[in-house]
Structures are given as structure tokens and as C-alpha cells.
Amino acid sequence: MSVFLFGVAPALPLHTAGKYVAGAYIVFLALVLVYVAIMATRLSRTERELAELRRDVELRRRSDAGGPDSGGPDARDPGREREPVA
């Protein structure tokens, strides 16, 4: 009989449980907002680095297309090895 009453009786009286439930939702929402802010910061940093890499690749392709007479990196040091561009 006592097991049945334990299953029916709430852990806290309903007039005090509401504050804790609301607090739990607020904490959960705050954690989700912090997570989204961190992910947005990482995304913007990654996009900025990707744009910089694209710009560097484009500049390298332009300088390589002009040949050694165009004043590219090969004109300054013809023996220098170039890094592969993916």
C-alpha cells in the first residue's frame, strides 16, 4: 500500500514545484543560448579564415599564371620550391 501512495504523491507540493521547474527551464535556455553563441563565433572565425585562404590561393594562381617574368615569387628566387595547392 505504501508503494502505491509513493507513486501518486508528488515529490514537492505543486505550489512550490513551479518555481523549480521554471528555474530549470531558464537554466536550460541559458545553456542553449551560450552554446549557440559559441557556435556562431566559431562559424564566423572559420568563414573569415576560409575567405583569407581563398584570397591567398587566388593570388598565388594569378602570380603563377603570369610566369617568372610577372614578378611572382619565382622571379625573386627561382630555386625556391612551391607548396602544393589543394
Based on helices, strands and strand pairing, what is the structural class?
Answer: mainly alpha
Distance from N terminus to C terminus (CA atoms, Å) equals 73 Å
Shape type: rod-shaped
Low-confidence stretches: none
Q: Taking all residues together, what is the mean pLDDT? A: 80
Give the percentage of residues in beta strands.
under 5%
Main sheet, how many strands, which sense, barrel?
none
- Order of SSEs: HHH
Compute the gyration radius: what is it? Answer: 31 Å
How would you sum up this structure, described in words?
The chain has 86 residues and is mainly alpha-helical. Helices cover 73% and strands 0% of the residues. The longest helix has 52 residues, at 14-65. The protein is rod-shaped, with a radius of gyration of 31 Å. 0% of the residues are buried. The mean pLDDT is 80.
Task: Please tag this protein with its features.
mainly alpha; single chain; 86 residues; rod-shaped; 73% helix; 0% strand; 3 helices
